[in-house]
Amino acid sequence: MMLALLPLALGCQNKGPVPQDGTPSKGPAPSVASPESGGAHPGPAQDPHAGMGQDPHAGMALQLAPHDSATGSGLPNDSGMIDVGAISFKVPEKWKAQPPKSSMRRAQVMAEGSAGPGELIVFFFGPQGAGGAQANIDRWVGQFTTDSGAPVTDAKQTSRKAGGFDTVMVEVAGRYGGGMGGPGTAQANQRLLGAIVNTDGGPYYFKLLGPDKTVLENAAAFDALLGSVVASP
What we know:
- With 233 residues, the protein is α+β, with helices and mostly antiparallel strands.
- Helices cover 17% and strands 30% of the residues.
- The strands form two sheets. Strands 3, 4, 5, 6, 7, 8, 9 and 10 form an eight-stranded antiparallel beta sheet that branches. A three-stranded antiparallel beta sheet has the order 1-2-11.
- The radius of gyration is 23 Å and the shape is globular.
- The protein starts with a helix and ends with a strand.
- Mean pLDDT is 76; it is low at 1-71 and 179-183.
């Protein structure tokens, strides 16, 4: 009888304790995503914004809508239009489109300027977006400080129609820290032109970021880009 019970007892020992409902796991949490650093900018050899913390939309891989063949390559067609999903827009003449570096990006375009290049990134996170428009605007503004490290209080927020879609815009300048870096890592004399284009399929986030002079030199082109937005075929 003792020998018959021995295998059963050993089997129970190998299973270990049975967790109860609501008992948290003591093992490591699964990795959800590898955040894209530097406020959605390229690596340190190419851009001074790289490595300065996380983009406010990073780490949301479970919510991301993958960039597939239905939304195009992120590069302009023969008419100079980039299809990013529900909408398309025309690339300004002197801007250079590049293949998106991650599924977070639906398009990335370089804008040259006298103070060095700026970069436009277009994000899409599916129908649910990445929070309310105002919360995103507040996060973007919060990535900037004055030279003394104080919060920026003169950011400009407006609204308009872009291709018939309700659009919220923001302009902010100062020391850019990517939302994470301290005063020692922030880059001075930076500017952001941002826009959130709301479509029936979800919001699209446009961020033109770069040296202050460069972004100002390209402000009219950014405005024209938003004016070129149309519903994708």
